[in-house]
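Take a look at the protein record below and tell me what you see:
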Amino acid sequence: MISIMNAVYLFLSIYLSFTNLLVQSAPQNAIVSQLPGFTGTIPSKHYAGYVTLDKNHGKKLYYYYVLSERDPSKDPVVLWLNGGPGCSSFDGFVFEQGPFNFEKTGSMPKLHLNPYAWNKVSNMIFLDAPAGVGMSYSKNKSDYITSDTITAKDSHKFLLRWFKLYPEYLSNPFYIAGESFAGIYIPTLSNQVIKGINNGEKPTLNFKGYIIGNGVCDDVFDGNAFVPFARGMGLISEYMYQDTKKECNGTFYKPPTLKCEMKLDKVDQHFEGLNMYNIIGKCFHGKSKISHEITKLPPSFRKLGKTERPHPVRTRMFGRAWPFKAPVKPGYVPSWPELLKTTLSSPCNDRGVASIWLNKKAVREAIHADPIKEAGKWELCTDRIKYNKEGESMINFHKNITARGYRALIFSGDHDLCVPYTGTEAWTKSLGYKVIDEWRSWKVNGQVAGYIQGYEKNLTFLTVKGAGHTNAIVSQLPGFTGIIPSKHYAGYVTLDKNHGKKLYYYYVLSERDPSKDPVVLWLNGGPGCSSLNGFVYEQGPFNFEKTGSMPNLHLNPYAWNKVSNVIYLDSPAGVGMSYSRNRTDYITSDTITSLDSHKFLLEWFQLYPEYLSNPFFIAGESFAGIYIPVLSYQVIRGLFYGEKPTINFKGYIIGNGVCDGVFDGNAFVPFARGMGLISEEMFQDATKECNGTFYSPPNLKCEFQLDKIDQHFDGLNFYNILGECYHDKSKISEYTKLPMSFRKLGETERPLPVRTRMFGRAWPFKAPVKAGYLPSWPELLNNTQNVLCNDDSVASTWLNNEAVRKAVHADPISEAGKWELCTSRLRYNSEAGSMIKYHKFITGWGYRALIFSGDHDLCVPYTGTEAWTQSLGYKVIDEWRSWKVDGQVAGYLREYDKNLTFLTVKGSGHTVPEYKPKEALAFYSRWYVTIDALRGKKLYYYYVLSERNPSKDPVVLWLNGGPGCSSFDGFVYEHGPFNFQKTGGLPKLHLNPYAWNKVSNMIFLDSPVGVGMSYSRDKSAYNTTDTKTALDSHKFLLEWFKLYPEYLSNPFYIAGESFAGIYIPTLSYQVVKGLEAGEKPTLNFKGYIIGNGICDDAFDGNGFIPFVHGMGLISNELHKEVNKTCKGKFYDVTDKNCKSKLRKVDKVLEGLNMYNILIPCFHANDSKNMDENTKLPLSFRKLGETQRPLPVRTRMFGRAWPFKAPVKRGYVPSWPEILESTQTIPCIDDSVATRWLNDEAVRVAIHADPVRSYNRFLFFLNSKQNFIKKLARC
C-alpha cells in the first residue's frame, strides 16, 4: 500500500481542485509546536486535539490536522479514515501518507520528512473513529457498541463541530478519503454529509466527493473476484481455475456445494507463503508467536513468512487490511484482535514504531492527546469496540452519491488479493455510467504507474501498478564510468515458448523527452548481422574506445537517442543475442522474419504500453532495405485487421538500402563514371555493349567490359570510395569467393582502426535482390580467417564479456551462443524480390518515408536509389536542393507527394551515421509541421514554455493581424520572452519581465501560409480566404498536438489582435466543429482572447466618430454637424455631404497616432516621404514627420488593421499594396526584427528554413499572398 500511496499522491495533485481564501486563524491551543523524534523544522502547521460529541458520556473523537505545504487557504481539506473496523487512522499518519517517515531506533523512533506526504498538496485530517479507536474514547463504555449508522452520524457530528473550530477552511473543497474497511465508512459518512447539506445543517460543508483505496464494497463483486484474479496473476493454473469455476458455477463468495468448497480449499493451499495484501511483496512474522490450532486465520496466513528476523517497519498487512475473504454482510463484525484470538502477535506486522511513539508521555502531550489513564493505551486496532454492520452492499450508496454529481475516485493497488482490483473494477462498471475516458495508462516520471477509466457522473476508477520494468533496466555498463543520461532497458521477448525462440532488444530512452519523442526500431542488414552494430559503431549512445581487455565507453554527442527512443533489435532468431532452442527456427525468410519482428513489436508494446501513443518509425540500412518494407507491410496489415495493441506507426527510414535488382544493379557503372573512377570512353563502351543493362550482362562483350571496369576498382573501398580500408594481407585465402578487387583491398601490415570497417553493415557488392537462398557474410568469405577492412574486436570483446551480458540482460553464451557481428547459423531465403511494390503500397497509405544515401557508396549507389524513388511516379513538391548543417552544404534532397523524401549525405559512405554522425543526427532530428505535403505547404511556429508550470498552465496560440502579418510581431515587439535592443549588427536580447509566457505556454504561429516563415512550394497556396486560413490553422493544431501530446490536457486558448479579430472566431469555429465531430486528438479548447480586433463593418465603422468626440479630439459642434449630416452612419458612406464632413474630421486628426492617440509617432520627412498618390489618408501621410531616429517599438504598422478599413466580403489588400509606391512606411522601423530573423545563424537556431526557400522574412507580404474575405462579419 505504501507504493500505492506514493503514486496516488502524484495523481491526487491533479485530481483535486482548489478554491478560496483564509479568513481567520485556527485555535492556538491545538497547535503542535514540536514533535519528539523530529529535529528539523516542520514545513507546515500541525494542529491536534479532541472534539467532544457527548459531554454527559465524555465521548470524544481525536484528530490530527496537517496543513498543506503548498497553499492551505485554497488546497482541499481531506478527512482520512483507516479501516478495520476498529483500526486507528494513525496507521495512515505513521505508515502511509503522513508527513513523516518513522525510523525504528532504541527507545524513541526518529522522524524524517516524507517526500510523498499527501499534505504536499492538501490539508489532511487524520481522524480516529468511532469512539474507542486509537486516541478516541468515551467514559461510557456503551458507546463502544457501534454500527455503520452510528459511526457515520458521529463522524458527521465531528465534522460540523470541527469546521466551527476551523471556519477559515469552510470554503475549501472538502473530500473524504480512506482504504479497506473505510470502503464502508466513507459512503455511509458521505451520505450523512449530503443529507446534512440538504437539510440546511450549519456550517455548510463544501463537500466535493470521496476517495477510496482497495475498499470493500459488495459481497458478490469482492468475493467473486479473488479466483479470477489469482488466475490472472498466475497464482493458480488454468486447469485449476476452469475446474473451480465449473464446480462453483462462477460463485466463489458463497460456495454453493461441498465440491465447490473443496476446490476453493485447494486454491487456498496455493496461497501459502503468499502475502495476500501484496502478492509481489514479502511478509515476516515470528514463527514462535502464531497459535496455529486456535487462530481463525487460514493456514496460508499462519504459515506466512515465518522468520526470526526483525520486522521491517513498513512491512505489515495488519490494521490497514480487511481480513482475507471476509464477507460484506449485515451482522457483527469481529475486530482483528478477535480474529487472531489467542495469537500473541499479528502476522506480517510490526506496529512497534507506532505503539512506542504514540504511547510516550512526551508525544501524547505534544500532540494534545489525553493520557493513557483516561484515553487508554494506543493500539493500531482495538478489541474494545463491538461493531455491527447494518447493510450489505455499498453500491446503492455509491449510485446515490455520484448521481448527485459528487466526485468519486476509486483506486486499487493491482496486486492486492484481499480486495482484488477486478472486483472493484466490476462494481464501478455495474453502476451503469457511460465511459467517457476509455481504459488507458497514467504515468509518473514518464513511466506507467497504473491504468484509469473515467465514467460520467465524475466517477473515476484507477489502478496503481505493482511493478514496472525494473527487471529490464540497465543500471550500469562495464567500461562506462559516468552517469547514463537516460534510462536504458534490455532483455528478451519470447515468440515461441515451446521452441524457446527469443528476440533480444536493447532500448535506449530519449535524452530529450521520452514520453513524446518517437520510438524508432533500428535494424541492421546482412542478412544475419546484429543491430548492435548500430549501437556500437554508428548512432548508439556511446563511442567505444579500444583498450586492452575492456573497451572504454564515452558518450556519443551525435547519438540518435538525443531526440528519439531507439530499440536495437537482433532479428531474426539466430542473429546477435537472439536465439532459439529449436535449430529449425534458423531457417528463415523475408516473410518469416517480418512476421516474427511484428510479433515482437506487439509483445514489446505490451511490456512498454506507456510508449504506445508515441509516433513509431522503423529505421535501418543496407539489407534492412528488405527487412523494413516487408515489416512495415505487416504492421499496416495488423492495424487494418485491428490487432492489439494499436501501434502508432508513422513511417520508415532507410539508409543506403537495397531495393531492386534492376535499379541497384544498373546504377554502379554510371555512378563510377560520375565519381571519376572510370573514363568517359570506358563508360561509353560499356553502355554501348551492355545496352545500359549492367545488372545482368546480356552478352559476352558486355561481361568483358564490366570485368575491365572491375579491375579499376582494385584497392578501392566500395563502401566509401573516399575512405581507406586495411586488412592483414597474410590472412586472405586465395579461395575466397570475394572478387579480386576485394581480396587486394587495402593490404597492409598496420593495425586496423576500430571503426574503419565495411563488413557486417554492408550488402555485398553487386549482390542481386532476387528470390532464392542468400548466403551469409561468413559463407561469402568462405574459409577466410578474418574479414578484410574490419576489426570487430571492440564489439565482440565487449558483448561476449560475462559482466556485460549480465548488465544488458543477455542470456549467457552457454544458452544464446557467442555474439558475432554476422552469423553463419542462419539459412535465409528471400522470396519478396523487388521492394518497389512495397514502397508504393506503404507510401500510398500516407505513411512517411525517408530514403537517404551516403553519396560515395559504390555498393548501393545513390543514383540507383534516386532512380527507384523517382520511378514511384509521385509528383515532385520540393525540387532538388541542398540542405545544410552549420551553414555548410550537407547533401541534397528532393521531396515527393505521399510524404516521400529522398536525401543524400555529401561525402558519406554506406553507413551514414558512422561516416557522417553530425549530419546524420541533423537530418534525423529536423522537423516542421507540414499541413499539405502535396504542395510542400508548411506553417512555422515558435513555442515558448511557461516559466511557472508548463504542465498545467494554459497553451495559448497567438496570431497577429494584417492580413498577412507575422506573429513574430508579437514575439519581437509585444509580449514575447525578450526585449530587443537595436545595435549596429545583430540586435541584443534582454529578458522581458512582462512576457506572457510568465504564466502560459505560448505558440507564435505564422499563418496563413505565405506569412513570415510559413511558405509553400506551390504558389497557388498563397490565394487564401477566411475559411481556408481557419482550416489550415486547425489542421496545424491537430498536427502540433500530436507532436506535443503532453499538453493536450492543458487548457487551450486562441489569442491575437487587430485582423486576428477575423482569424480567431473563424478558427475557433473550426476547432469547435472538430470537437463535435470527434476529430483526434481532442483539444481542450476553453475560449479565445481578442485585443482591439475588427469584427463588424457597422459596429467598427460607426464607432470612430463617437470615440473621437468622447476622447475630446473633435468639438461638440463638429460632432453634432457630422451626426446630423451622416445620420449616425459613418461607415461605407455614399452621401457627398457626409463624406465632406468626415474629411473635415480627418483633417482635425492629422498628426495623430491613430493606434495610440496618447503617444507620438515618427517617420522621416525627406525624399522618401509619402507619395501623394498613396491611398493612406492625409493624417497618416503627414503623421509625425521628423529627422530623429525611430524608436524600436514605436510603430503602428504590421500589428494594425488599416484605419477605417471596412470589414466586408471581397479582396483584402495587404499593407504593401495599400502603401503602393511609397518607399518608406510611416511610424515604423522594423529593422530590428528583419535584421534578426533574416540572419542565417538565427534561422538555424530557431529551425527556420533558409531564406532562399521562400524569400526574405517580412512582417508583411508583397505580392506573395492574396487574401479573399468571404465573411461579412464575425
